[in-house]
Write a structure and sequence with these properties.
heterodimer, A: alpha+beta, six-stranded mixed barrel, globular, B: alpha/beta, Rossmann fold, six-stranded mixed beta sheet, four-stranded antiparallel beta sheet, 7 helices
Chain lengths: ~800, ~230
């Protein structure tokens, strides 16, 4: 029977394939990211140790506690020596550097690891060995273990790699091992490429403020986490007394590694986007199921007579059920099969973009949808559930004609006049499904509408600086301790760099700063302000070191006083320029020029305010108050990570390349983090919003199309079933207009009921995406009104086409159905 | 009242034109009761639909009272249909989703009769046909005879001058058929012109003229007296 009706069968299988495939992909991703256990051996006995630290939120001024702080190497040594609850305690300290192989030099992230690190995490090298005890000593042999990915990347998976040399920051290291592919260090946003032994002797790494050590402990058998916490709290108290300058305010947390894993996967991914996408896909799947149901019902209604004839010929009811069930299950299984293939492809594609900014074509934002270390594969449970749902849908609705046989009079079903007429159960069910279609589409459209509304408002935010045609090169000065160890060296680099870039055709002006209007919120410093009541402990204010042309380049007007000049250098009086908001807060109704601000913990510097500028809009939930200080009056440390801003004539493609070339001509070893236009950088801050808007928009559009197809289908079906009735009405004197109105009224009725249900659903659902919305209330009336009109309009249009067809019914043709 | 001249209807098929009606010329006076008879495919129902202005795709001249139907546009023909014609169908064609009362109300609503007047007319008609007790029932709750009774009531509710009945007794047993025919006769006696299509000479005998059709052609005209006695 399916082969006899290929259009119907193919359509149902396509709907099921897309529905099952997309839902399985998203369920698998969400499962991998949010629900899978940590990938280390016996992870239930592993705990992570984090220091806690109280701080004041610069945005709200409220006291808070940061809970995921690493410790220092010296602190780790103390924990190892003093604790008794751990079978072993290991740690890893991050290293960033340049790696030179035979044919390339590139930047890489690695880790120094403590003894027994690999055995605690259950990792054995696939080539070579782990570190020997003597290699952990200071001045021991320089050795390195490679990750599987980097072994493949640098040595093309050469099995003879053991003994090869790598140059790390100009020092030669010998490769002694390669780790298996499935071993991942999950506590970093990018993959760790290599591992080196960490000397733990007490003569080195004594700085307790240098906290980069991520510590993991394996609990002794029979020791509970509570016991471990108790002992670690005692140790922390002892260390606080022993080292009050560095440890006085510190606390300790002992966290099961699975909890830490969930925290990091959440940090390195966008679970909220993923769950929103999942919810949206499930909604679309539901609509797809409704459509399949609707099609099966329509088919059932047309087959009622066929089934009645079969029953009249003596077919047993069970046999009829078996036949219908076989057809339905076959459809669902085909959908499941193709859906599985689609899911496999989808997950393969997602695995490729793992750890990358997604979608890459929207810009190099830092948002990563899927953490690099998550192993994504088809989740069998998800696939099973989704296919089962499809089976249920097809089975239930496919059986309707056989089940209805028991309720209907065979004579009635067999009567020629009746079969082409009104089939109440089919009509009501289809109407109900259309109502559900519309209500789900309404919820999705409201979600998309709110996101679009919010995103449009973001786009309309005026940064209050001229960010157009400003290219920003963000640099990291390599080997800061050596080549750029003094301020003079760093300033000399900046001077030469500006000189070179100025010669690039199309460059108008250059400024250097540590931070741009696109910077979310760093460079906070504590300022003591004379006469300001709450300044005894200092006021935290964003502090941006800038070169003299910064305001001119960004066209930020100086409202009072002056800009910085070349005379504002280390030899002159320290000065500062503040923005309007800060001036109002610190010195309301006073002239801020000539007032003083003091900052710097170890070497306090008092600066005289020489200018007031207009506020620049920074993004992120931070106060807009800001202090600018001349680059030449800083100790130059911040200038290790300069943002070089270049105003250009136009956005020519060659400009970025030319700027890169000039930077490398000044220092070929310099690390260029990125070269991009400032307005693009600002836009990239909203990758999450853009991605969510795009995804929700696409699915809402799909839902709108599906819902309109549903309304069209239901109305067209209703019209086709009512052809005879319409003919009778016309024979009784109904005009085309009467028929048109009657059919449209039917479509409008379904739409209005769907909208009413959708309205309730939208009020609930929009609360879930509240945090993704910017400057838009989840109940924004404009969005609700616009979406209601849009959906009603589309629904009316979808009803109009069959309604017009109905109005053109030739009564004689219609009556011939008799 | 009805004047048909050289009425012709044809379909364009792959094999050429297929004629359903040819050269039909016929006069029917007001108050007549006419039967169209003939074998299946003779064109009876087609002719009835042309007279009832449900079919507008034909050639020839058709005058209904002083209206030249052949010159009217489809919309004007429908307006004329509303003014003159009531239909009775073989399969009753009651609207399944409406009650008896609502079925009777439908033709009046299409004629823009106001609510109060509509109710009054429908109640009168229900009373006249003795179906007041059935007014809230749905068609599926009525017997075939009762359904056709409602069908006839619906045909006359808007007081048409002409009733076109397409095999009104086709789905009824003999007693029910007789009842419907007596009803039509009564309406005819009250001045309504009736044209019916039937295969039964027994029911044809209720009319005053019997027009025979064969393969789309008029095949003579007889009076009931000229019918064989056995069927009368």
């Amino acid at each position: 029977m399916l082969a006899k009706n290929p259009g119907f069968s193919v359509f149902v299988v396509i709907i099921l394939t897309v529905g099952i495939g997309a839902t399985t992909v998203m369920l698998s991703v969400v499962d991998a990211i949010m629900f899978r256990a940590c990938p280390y051996r016996d992870s239930e006995h592993l705990v992570c140790l984090y220091e806690t630290n109280p701080y004041v939120d610069p945005a709200t001024g409220a006291p808070k506690i940061s809970r995921w702080n690493f410790t220092s190497i010296a602190g780790f040594r103390d924990w190892r020596e003093q604790s008794h609850v751990f079978e072993r305690l290991v740690g890893a300290d991050q290293w960033n550097g340049m790696v030179r192989t035979i044919d390339r030099t590139e930047r890489c992230r690695g880790h120094f690891v403590s003894p027994e690190f690999f055995s605690v995490l259950g990792a054995s090298p696939i080539l070579g060995r782990t570190f020997l005890p003597e290699e952990y000593r200071q001045r021991g042999r320089r050795v390195v273990i490679l990750s599987h990915d980097h072994w493949r990347h640098w040595f093309a998976s050469d099995p003879n790699v053991i003994g090869e040399t790598l140059i790390l920051d100009r020092e030669a290291y010998t490769v002694v091992g390669v780790l298996p592919e499935d071993f991942q260090w999950i506590f970093q946003p990018i993959a760790c490429g290599l591992w080196m032994p960490m000397p733990l002797d007490t003569t080195t790494n004594t700085n307790r403020n240098n906290r980069g050590m991520n510590v993991i402990g394996r609990l002794k058998s029979g020791v509970s986490i509570a016991q471990a916490r108790m002992e670690m709290e005692l140790i922390t108290e002892r260390l606080a007394q022993a080292y009050p300058e560095t440890n006085a305010s510190r606390g300790i947390r002992v966290v099961p590694i699975d909890e830490a894993y969930a925290h990091y996967t959440g940090n390195f991914s966008k679970p909220q986007i993923l769950t929103t996408v999942l919810a949206v896909i499930v909604s679309v799947l539901l609509i797809a199921c409704f459509h399949v149901s609707s099609l099966l019902i329509a088919r059932s209604a047309t087959r009622e007579r066929e089934i009645a004839v079969r029953a009249a010929l003596g077919a047993h009811r069970l046999r009829l059920i078996r036949q219908l069930l076989t057809e339905s299950i076959l459809l669902a299984l085909l959908g499941g099969l193709f859906g599985g293939i689609l899911a496999y492809w989808g997950l393969s594609i997602l695995s490729i973009v793992k750890g990358q900014s997604i979608p890459w074509y929207l810009g190099p934002g830092s948002e990563r949808l899927i953490p690099w270390f998550v192993n994504i594969h088809i989740d069998a449970r998800s696939f099973f559930y989704v296919t089962a749902l499809s089976l249920l849908t097809c089975g239930a609705f496919g059986l309707l004609p056989a089940l209805s046989i028991s309720k209907t009079n065979l004579n009635r079903s067999l009567s020629a006049g009746r079969t082409s007429g009104y089939v109440p159960w089919s009509h009501s069910l289809r109407s109900m499904l259309v109502v559900l279609d519309i209500s789900i589409a309404f919820v999705l459209l409201i979600g998309a509408g709110l996101m679009i509304n919010g995103y449009v408002r973001i786009l309309r935010i005026d940064p209050k600086a001229d960010t157009e045609n400003v290219l920003v090169a963000t640099l990291e000065l390599q080997g800061g301790e050596e080549r750029y160890s003094t301020s003079a060296q760093r300033f000399e680099f900046s001077r030469r760099l500006m000189e070179r870039i100025q010669k690039v055709p199309g460059v108008q002006s250059i400024a250097i700063a540590n931070g741009t209007p696109a910077s979310m919120g760093y460079n906070w410093d504590k300022f003591i302000v004379e006469g300001f009541s709450s300044s005894r402990e200092g006021v935290k204010i964003r502090c941006t070191p800038i070169s003299r042309d910064y305001f001119r380049l960004l066209r930020i007007p100086v409202l009072r006083g002056r800009q910085f000049t070349e005379h504002d250098n280390s030899a002159s009086t320290p000065v500062a320029i503040i923005n309007e908001s800060l001036a109002k807060r610190l010195w309301p109704n006073q002239n801020p020029l000539g007032k003083c601000l003091t900052h710097g913990a170890s070497e306090p510097v008092t600066r005289e305010v020489v200018g007031v500028t207009r506020d620049v809009r920074h993004f992120g939930d931070y106060p807009n108050e800001e202090v600018y200080i001349p680059c030449l009056q800083t100790n130059g440390f911040t200038m290790l990570y300069p943002d070089v801003m270049i105003r250009t004539d136009a956005r020519t493609t060659g400009l970025t390349v030319a700027v890169r070339r000039e930077i490398l001509s000044v220092d070929p070893d310099i690390f260029i983090r990125q070269v991009t236009f400032l307005d693009r950088q600002i836009a990239d801050l909203f990758t999450t919003e853009r991605l969510s808007t795009l995804l929700l928009g696409v699915f809402a559009a799909a839902a709108l199309v599906l819902a309109s197809v549903g309304i069209y289908g239901a109305t067209a079906y209703m019209v086709s079933r009512r052809t005879h009735e319409i003919g009778v009405r016309m024979a009784l004197g109904a005009r085309s207009g009467d028929v048109l109105k009657s059919v449209l009224r039917q479509g409008l009725k379904l739409t209005l009921i769907g909208l009413a249900i959708g309205l309730v659903g939208a009020f609930v659902a929009t609360r879930i995406i509240r945090s993704l919305l910017h400057n838009v209330s989840p109940t924004d009336p404009l969005t609700f009104i616009c979406v209601s009109f849009l959906l009603s309009g589309v629904a009316l249009l979808a009803s109009y086409i069959p309604a017009r067809r109905a109005a053109k019914t030739d009564p004689m043709e219609a009556l011939r159905y008799e | 009242m009805i004047k048909l001249q050289n009425i012709q209807k044809r379909y364009n098929t792959k094999a050429g034109f297929t004629y359903v009606l040819q050269q039909i010329t016929l006069d029917i006076a007001e108050g007549e009761f006419v039967t169209l008879m003939g074998p299946s495919g003779a064109g009876k129902t087609t002719l009835l639909n042309i007279i009832g202005m449900l079919d507008s795709d034909w050639e020839g001249q058709y005058t209904l009272d002083d209206n030249s139907v052949h010159t009217l546009k489809p919309r004007q023909r429908l307006a004329l249909n509303k003014q003159y014609v009531g239909f009775v169908f073989q399969n009753f064609n009651l609207l399944d989703s409406l009650t008896v009362y609502e079925n009777l109300e439908a033709p009046l609503s299409y004629r823009n009769v106001k609510g109060a007047e509509r109710a009054s007319i429908v109640c009168d008609t229900l009373d006249r046909f003795g179906i007041v007790g059935k007014k809230d029932l749905f068609p599926s709750q009525l017997s075939g005879g009762q359904q056709q009774l409602v069908g006839v009531a619906r045909a006359v509710v808007a007081s048409p001058k002409l009733i076109l009945a397409d095999e009104p007794t086709g789905n009824l047993h003999s007693a029910q058929g007789q009842e419907v025919m007596e009803l039509l006769t009564k309406l005819n006696q009250q001045g309504t012109t009736i044209i019916q299509v039937t295969h039964s000479e027994k029911y044809a005998a209720y009319s005053r003229r019997i027009i025979n059709l064969k393969d789309g052609w008029m095949d003579g005209e007889v009076t009931p007296r000229q019918l064989p006695r056995k069927d009368r």
